[in-house]
Amino acid sequence: MRLTDLSIKTLEAPEKGAIVYPDSVLTGFGVRISEGGTKSFVLTHGKLRKRETIGRVGVLTLQDARAEAKRRLAEYTLGKTVPRPVAWNMAVTIYLEEVRRRLKPRTHADYKRFLEKYFRFGELAVSEVAPDDLQTRVSRLAGTPVEQHHAFVVVRTFLRWAHRKHYLNANPMERMQSGHRYRPRERVLTNDELRRVWNAAGDGNYGSIVKLLILTGQRVGEISKLTPDMIGEDTVTLPAEATKNGRMHAFPVGQTARSILRRSLGRVFLFPARGKPTAPFNGFSKGKASLDKASGVGEWTLHDLRRTFATGLASLGVSLPVVEKLLNHVSGSFAGIVGVYQRHSYDREMRAAMELWEQEVDRIVRGPVRADGTSD
Asked: Residue 213: which domain range?
């Protein structure tokens, strides 16, 4: 059948597996539909009938997909790898669709934002974008060095992908360097700062998040999106889809953290009642500004509490592997072959570390003890 925009809309998905509807106009070209209804343009070619995906229907137009299929067939027939005359916008669309499955939604959204906001070359072919064009756009971000560095890394990654796809004979960013060298933050709150932040946080929505970050050392996005089914009697279990590294993470919580968790159950944004939708908490900026003013502590971020947690545990003599287990790190002590064969859960050691840390936090937030036995 001749594939048209209208005929593609009427194609039906199979009950199981996938089905390919071939195009009568171009041999090997067709539309693949999965049992879930996802439609993609595909090309089948060669003696081994190799099938490759060109792009998803709706993301690419039929006209563009058929043109790309023709170009690929010509290349395979001639045995040449000349630069593909692909427009920048189309290449970005194909790239973002291809990496969607291996990137977390937030990371994918960041890639899309950087490429579409700072590197808009429209219908200009990728092979025609010059180093000067890229350097000019990167240089415009000099006033925001961190943003500049991230934009540089994203567009460089995209162009390396384009080079592998033969959209380019040479990567125009091969000799370019980022104008800003990224340096990870090293901020660790002092005991006095930690005490002031804790005491100023209060017991509201934002304050509960801050205190749980101090006590557990977890990431902001993980604590702020907890649901009742993740919370056990003395353990919190984060499913793989809720963690940054895509690995399920179970960690123990002490008595103070448990009391905060119990007090937070049923709130609208945090730990909603079963059956009720989760409303994302959107008061971080306002809450942080208020907390800074009330505590008198400045120049810090919520993520610094994670570093403060790790540093505090180390100062108490907790071993690095235990700290990394609590942080859900897969590098460091558990990198490479060690991570494959090391299956000790460290549950007992993690519980002991959490109890020790809660005792330390309690001592810190009570403040220094005066000669009369009272504390600040």
From this structure: 191-366
Residues 228 and 243: their CA atoms lie apart, in Å, by 16
Are 282 and 264 spatial neighbours (Cβ–Cβ below 8 Å)? no
**371 in a domain, yes or no?**
no
Q: What is the reported pLDDT for 272?
A: 52
Whether 311 shows a pLDDT value over 70: the answer reads yes
Distances (CA, A) of 28 to 57, 103, 145: 17, 30, 48
Q: Which residue has the tokens 């905060």?
A: 260
State whether 112 and 64 are in the same domain.
Answer: no
- Do both 54 and 118 map to the same domain? no
Apex 312 CA angle, 310 and 315, nearest 5: 110
**pLDDT at residue number 308:** 96
List pLDDT tens digits, range 197-215: 999 999 888 999 999 999 9
Model pLDDT, residue 255:
95
Same domain, 24 and 116: no
Q: Work out the burial of residue 305: count CB atoms within 10 Å of its CB; fewer than 13 is exposed, 13-18 middle, 19 or more buried.
A: buried
Could you tell me the end-to-end alpha-carbon distance of the chain, in angstroms, rounded to an integer? 82
Q: Is 359 found in the same domain as 229? A: yes
Distance of alpha carbon 307 from alpha carbon 301, whole angstroms: 10
Q: Are residues 291 and 233 in the same domain?
A: yes
pLDDT digits 0-9 by tens, 284-302: 888 999 999 999 998 899 9
CB 100 within 8 A of CB 108: yes
Residue 176, domain member (yes or no): no
Residue 43 is classified by DSSP as: E
**Domain count across the chain:** 3
